[in-house]
Design brief:
There is one protein chain. By secondary structure, this protein is of the alpha/beta class. It is built from 13 helices and 13 strands. The strands form 3 sheets. It has an 8-stranded parallel β-sheet. β3 and β4 form a beta hairpin. α5 packs parallel to α6 and α9 runs parallel beside α10. The longest helix is centred in the first third of the chain and has 20 residues. The protein starts with a strand and ends with a helix.
Length: 336
C-alpha cells in the first residue's frame, strides 16, 4: 500500500457535536465541551451566543467555532481553553497519521472580513501546536489568501483546498503561493455523478493547473463522493472514477476525496468510511479528506477484510446490498 495522504478535516467550523451526547456536558454555570491536555480533564465553556441559536435548538453545537470564539473573545481562562482545544485537535491528528491539517472557518460567520482575520489567526495558532503542513479550505479567495500567507513553508508546501472549473480563479493563488492543490471534478454549474462527467471536468482543470507551473505530483484530484443513502450506485461510480484517474494520469498524480460523504444518513458511519477508504485505495486512490483518528494508513493496512462488518459494508458500498437492508438490519440488531 502506498503511503496514505490523510488531510485531517477536524478543524472545521462546520463540525458539530450533538448536545445530548458525550461531547457536551452540563456545568454549574451552563454547558461545556470536555477535552484533555496530557491526560488531564479540561472543559471548553460554550458561550451564551451558541446556546441561543438555531443549531443549539436543533441539538447541535459547532465545537471548533466555539473554540475560536473563546480564543478571540473569552476571558483569560476561556481564551486558554480555546487555544488548548484547537491545539489538541491538531496534535491528535498529527499523532494519528495526519499528513495535512485542513482548516476551514467559512461557517463561523457571514462577515468575510472577520473570517479573513480568523483564518490567519487559526493557521498561526495551529502551527504552534503541530509540525504538519496546513491545508487552507474556503470558498472565498480572500480567505484562502489569508490562510496561505500565514503558512509556515518550512514544514512543506501548504495545500489549497480546492480549485475547480467553478472556482478557476483560485488556480492563480495556488501558483502564486506554490502550493499543492486539491482539484475537484466539479463543473462550472454542476456536480457530475458519472465517470464520463467527472473525467471530462478533470481533463479540463488539470491542463489549467499545469499551465500555471503546478506539477502533476502536486495535484490531488477529488473525483467527488456522493452519499450511498441517496443512490446505491454512488459507491461504484466514485470507485470507477478513481480507477480512471489512475489509469489516465499514472502514478504521479494523487487521488483524494471527502470520503466520509459516502456515509451520510447511514448507521455506523465509521465502519462505512473505513471500508470505503480501503476500497478507494484498492481502486487507485492514495488519500482522503478524513478524520485521521478513524482513517489512516495503519488502520487501512490492518483492516480485517474477512469480518462480517467489512463484508456487509463492502456489499452496501458496491451496490450488492439493495437498499442496504442487510447492513442496516445488522446494525439494528447489534451484529456489527
Amino acid at each position: 500500500m502506498k503511503p496514505f495522504i490523510a488531510v485531517g478535516e477536524n478543524i472545521h467550523c462546520t463540525r458539530v457535536y450533538k448536545t445530548d451526547g458525550k461531547f457536551v456536558t452540563k456545568t454549574d454555570t451552563g454547558y461545556a465541551i470536555p477535552y484533555k491536555v496530557a491526560g488531564a480533564a479540561r472543559q471548553l465553556p460554550i458561550p451564551k451566543l451558541f446556546l441561543e441559536n438555531a443549531e443549539w435548538e436543533a441539538g447541535r453545537v459547532k465545537h471548533c467555532a466555539v473554540a475560536i470564539w473563546q480564543y478571540v473573545n473569552g476571558d483569560a481562562a476561556a481564551k486558554k481553553a480555546g487555544e488548548e482545544y484547537l491545539s489538541s485537535l491538531a496534535q491528535s491528528q498529527e499523532k494519528s497519521g495526519g499528513t495535512y491539517l485542513d482548516i476551514n472557518v467559512d461557517e463561523y460567520s457571514t462577515d468575510v472580513g472577520e473570517r479573513v482575520k480568523l483564518m490567519d489567526l487559526t493557521v498561526r495558532l495551529v502551527q504552534k501546536a503541530s509540525r504538519l503542513p496546513i491545508s487552507v479550505d474556503s470558498s472565498n479567495a480572500e480567505i484562502l489568501r489569508a490562510g496561505l500567507a500565514a503558512c509556515d513553508r518550512s514544514r512543506g508546501a501548504p495545500m489549497l483546498n480546492s480549485v475547480s472549473l467553478e472556482r478557476a480563479s483560485a488556480i492563480d493563488l495556488a501558483a502564486e503561493f506554490k502550493t499543492v492543490v486539491v482539484a475537484s471534478a466539479a463543473g462550472e454549474r454542476d456536480l457530475p455523478c458519472t465517470t464520463e462527467g467527472r473525467m471530462e471536468n478533470i481533463g479540463r482543470i488539470i491542463p489549467m493547473l499545469t499551465a500555471k507551473g503546478i506539477k502533476t505530483g502536486a495535484i490531488h484530484v477529488d473525483p467527488l463522493v456522493f452519499p450511498i443513502s441517496t443512490d446505491q450506485n454512488n459507491g461504484n461510480g466514485f470507485l470507477d472514477a478513481v480507477s480512471q484517474v489512475r489509469k489516465t494520469y499514472g502514478p504521479e498524480i494523487h487521488v483524494v476525496a471527502g470520503l466520509s460523504n459516502v456515509s451520510f444518513g447511514m448507521p455506523n458511519r465509521k465502519l462505512l468510511n473505513q471500508v470505503f477508504a480501503w476500497l478507494s485505495v484498492q481502486a487507485g486512490g492514495d488519500g482522503g479528506i478524513v478524520d485521521p483518528l478513524q482513517i489512516n494508513g495503519k488502520i487501512l493496512a490492518e483492516m480485517d477484510t474477512k469480518s462480517k462488518g467489512f463484508e456487509l459494508a463492502k456489499a452496501l458500498l458496491t451496490g450488492q446490498d439493495e437498499f442496504g437492508m442487510n447492513y442496516i438490519t445488522a446494525c439494528r440488531e447489534g451484529e456489527i
